[in-house]
Amino acid sequence: MNADSGCRWRRSTRLRGLLGALLAITLGLAACSSDDGGGQGGDDAQNGSPGGNQRVAPAAAKPAAAITLSPAAGAVDVSPTAPIAVAVKDGTIDSIALTNPDGKAVGGTLSKDRTSWAPSEPLGYDKTYTWSGSAVGADGNPVPITGAFTTVKPKRQPRAKINTGDGQTFGIAMPIAITFDAPITDKAAAQKALTVLPSVPTEGAWAWLDDRTVHWRPKAYWKPGTTVAVTAKLYGVAYGNGAYGREDLSSQFSIGRAQVVKANTRTHRWVVIRDGQQVADYPASFGLDSDPGRVTTSGIHVVMGKSPTYKMTNRAYGYEDFPVNWAVRLSNNGVFSHAAPWSVGDQGKRNVSHGCANLSPKNAKEFYDSAIIGDPVEIEGSTNPLSAKDGDYYDWAISWDKWLAKSAL
Fold first, then answer.
1. Structurally, what CATH architecture does the domain formed by 259-394 represent?
2. What pLDDT is recorded for position 33?
3. Could you tell me if 299 and 377 are in contact, meaning their C-beta atoms sit under 8 angstroms apart?
4. Rounded CA gap, 220 and 205, in Å?
5. Helix (H, G, I), strand (E, B) or coil at 81
6. Which fold has domain 66-150?
7. pLDDT of the residue at 29
8. Which of 215, 268, 338, 354 is catalytic?
9. Nearest Cα to 146, choosing from 131, 128, 164?
10. CB neighbours of 374 closer than 8 A, spacing ≥ 6?
């Protein structure tokens, strides 16, 4: 290689080196300009302009309607009073119907926001009910409402009755009695369905006197003028052993004036106190003390009924259908007050009756006219206490502590 050739090679090599360095510097400056965002491209990226690098996330899909049936589709042995409803999430109800086996639609109420529906009337026993309709989801698509359930078929439906009639007025000792025509196994379930609402605060409680009878009474006598609403929501209640409530009961009544009889078998008096004032003091003759089968029971009795003429029967003592006037029933074991003209000479002096309170015809009529069902008659002095064997109403013969212990709850 000659000298000129060597020089040209060295100059060419140096030139390529300078060009490479210049290219590296240029690329470096471009990179710095891009990294620090100082250029127009950086502003565009931050502002989201078409010249920037930011990516926009796709919009989330709107959900379909989610339907919940209560009870669930296919449910069986459903109580006709169980919570029945359809509810929709992420959508609204477009149309809805619940029909019985005859194709009749059950009345119901749709919520204002159209997200739920519930029946407004009771269902029947042993029937299959079918849902139909549709809901529209947030995605705009319809979803069908379908399904069916079957209510329970009771083995028995005990009847119940209540002793207080609507619009009636009772005395201050009146108990509320609900009586079933068959034994109740699950007494707690039945009792939970019972409500007593007095117009003034009144302490009271339910007590089961046997497997078929539950009573409510206040701890102390009712306050005169109290109005009382009783509700027994028994339809659909499971009583146990396949028995279910037949129907609901209700009663609204009031408490009248405060009349109390203070009777004493030893002093032979029948004293009537009304609203705290004594209004009568009658001589009386009670059950013969020497015969245990004729002794008048002591304790707080309750007037149970009245009859201007009543036929008395006691075959053990040799009489049947014996008529008496102005009879006021005080127990289911034969204790009445009534007119007894044959014992007027003994009244106020001796006890000669078969257990009743004998009064003169005039006095018996006065008392009969003044008495109302539910009035207390407090009898003292005898050796025979009022008890369960005397039937309704012996409620006040039970101490309050023992009464509370008879509750099923």
1. Beta Barrel (2.40)
2. 42
3. no
4. 11
5. coil
6. Immunoglobulin-like (2.60.40)
7. 36
8. 338
9. 131
10. 170, 171, 172, 173, 174, 255, 302, 303
Which run of H or of E encompasses 277?
Answer: strand 277-283
| Catalytic residue list contains 215 | no
Question: pLDDT by residue (tens digit) across 119-129?
Answer: 999 999 999 99
- Strand 319-329 to 259-264 pairing: unpaired
Q: Are 370 and 278 in contact (CB under 8 A)?
A: no
For residue range 182-233, what is the model confidence (pLDDT) as tens digits?
Answer: 999 999 999 999 999 999 999 999 999 999 999 999 999 999 999 999 999 9
Active site residue 356: yes
DSSP string, 22-43: HHHHHHHHHHHHHHT--SHHHH
* CATH number for region 160-256: 2.60.40.3710
Pairing relationship of beta strands 147-150 and 128-137 according to DSSP bridges? antiparallel
Nearest to 79 by CA among 239, 212, 250: 239
- Assigned token pair, 70: 């209560």
As a residue count, the chain comes to 409
Annotated active-site residue in 215, 268, 354, 356: 356
Query: Given this chain, do its domains 66-150 and 160-256 carry the same CATH topology?
Result: yes
Break the chain into its structural domains and give their ranges.
66-150, 160-256, 259-394
φ, ψ of residue 197 to 5 degrees: the values are -125, 95
Side chain identity, residue 258: A
Residue 99 near residue 132, CB atoms below 8 Å: yes
Contact predicate 135/116, CB 8 Å = no
d(CA 65, CA 123): 27
Specify the residue for token string 């029937």: 127
> What's the chain's average pLDDT?
89
Q: Among all chains, which residue has been given the structure tokens 């979803």?
A: 143
Sequence-separated (6 or more) residues with CB below 8 Å from residue 64: 90, 91, 137, 138, 139, 141, 143
- Tell me the pTM: 0.81
Q: Are 356 and 334 in contact (CB under 8 A)?
A: yes
* Residue 394 CB partners (closer than 8 Å, separation 6+): 299, 331, 386, 387, 388
**Separation between Cα atoms, residue 282 and residue 274, nearest integer Å:** 14
Closest CA to 169 of 305, 307, 311, 373: 373
Residue 220 sits at the vertex; the CA angle it makes with 215 and 223, to the nearest 5 degrees, is: 100
> 186 vs 192, 244, 267, 403, CA distance in Å?
10, 10, 47, 19
What's the burial of 14, exposed, middle or buried (CB within 10 Å: 0-12/13-18/19+)? exposed
